[in-house]
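Illustration: Small ribosomal subunit protein uS17.
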Amino acid sequence: MPKRILQGTVTSDANEQTITVSVERRFKHPVLQKTIRKSKKYRAHDENNAFKVGDTVRIIECAPRSKTKRWEVLEA
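Result:
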């Protein structure tokens, strides 16, 4: 099975080697036909602490690195 790749914005870089990425998805409501925006936060591994709040990054699925980290940064 291929690994998922998501794109989002860094919302936190407070922890060592970890960033929080907010990923937004848009879809049309099935009944109202209105475009809805939903966002979800993912914790991703950032080896060199290279990314800061506000950066746009791509993250990829990986094996679990900790209790909450299942993603790692692919590129900016």
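Reading the tokens back as a structure: Residues 21 and 31 are 30 Å apart (CA to CA).
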